[in-house]
Amino acid sequence: MQSLLRFIVRFYGFFLFVVLEVFCGLIISTESNFHRASFFSSANYLIGNFYNSTSDIADYFQLKEANEQLLSENAKLKAALKSAHYNKSFKVGLVRNVASEQLYTFIPAKVINNSISSLTNYLTLDKGSIQEVKAEMGVICDKGIIGLTKTVSNHYTSVISLLHKDLKVSAKFKKNNYFGSVEWNGKKHTIVQLHDIPQHVNIQVGDTIVTSGYSTFFPADIPIGAVSNFELIEGTNFYDIDVQLFADLQSIEYIYIVNHLKKEELEELSSKEENE
Amino acid sequence: MNKRTAIPIIRFFILLFLQVGILNNMSILGYITPYAYLLTLLLLPVNLPHWIIIFSGFFLGLSVGAFTNDAGIHAAATTFIAFLRPSILKAIAPSIGYDDDAPISPFSQGYGWFVFYLTIIVLIHHIILFGLEIMSFQYPLYLFSKIFFSTIYSVACMFAFSLFTSSNKRR
User: Fold this and answer.
1) Sign of the torsion formed by the C-alpha atoms of B49, B55, B61 and B67
2) What domain count does chain A have?
3) A177, A185, A186, A250: least CB-packed within 10 angstroms?
4) Do the Cβ atoms of B157 and B23 come closer than 8 Å?
5) Residue A116 lies in a domain
């Protein structure tokens, strides 16, 4: 016993090192798990406040771009209003929206920290559980999708970027609804890869890729990008497709968090199916 | 708090701010990022007990990594170099030896030695950091170029920073 103690005391540095490295391993495993909030995250109060104040300074240099972006988005939304359309229907008494019910709400937020240089990129947003942000909500901007919320604190949220090597998003061709999943290979921050599209699908450069709406994270038909390059993977029946993103993830500032109002009902249903 | 403990703590906060506020946004080509925060650990005096060095390395990695949501891999890498630091210092001891109580600085041990010392430790750190980040050998060229160029970038930033902040008087 005594000699064991003496041994530990003599090599205490090594034991301390091993214990701390094991602890690091535990942190890494919570961080790489998308379904668990991590304690050491940029949603942390101190870190959130730090990024909030640095982004306040940087904002002044981007006011013009931010204004133009909001203006163009407003114009798009105005054009979609009912009053902006000429009604060609000549039937009288046409009933519209008989049983329409709100399915999604959107929480606006500002990006206060962003990264594209690592393989596991994250963003930090200035909204948190006070604004009813929850984990695993989709994040979109006017031009496309951004990512998925992970850790939520009272005032801040960390978001797994679309530019994270482990994030997969269900996506489809706008023209024929063939669907697959979009993933990032870690190379260029403007290009993601679309997988699982079979050989018989007719693909052209420039085809638009949109969200499929099969998950509760994103509504259907949110634009993602356009096909920029494609080739058949050797020895398989599937294509390797490069998709040029519409949104520039390096310079996004204002985004929307997608709140699916029937999420629990859907999840309950799919968990029932799994149990049967 | 005396001057010997205050200076490393102040240096820690300055470098943390510099790292997460500025250097993290100074990537070249989208993937080569300098990590100068290691200097906090590297400049600690030679005769500090091993456990202080290891704990400093651990907390240094946790605090910098928390900002980018990868505290685990940063802490793993910094703890590792903190553990190795005494052995490395012994192995590459300069002919004039160390001034045990004083912080390590480019002025007391010489520029050439200092850059050599930085390069060895930064290289080990980057191999572990990026190795853990990528966790696969799917893109060996990407991994090697990231390690190689980031090491050069980091060492350059750290060398510049230490020239400005280390005290120039030889004892």
Assistant:
1) negative
2) 2
3) A177
4) yes
5) yes
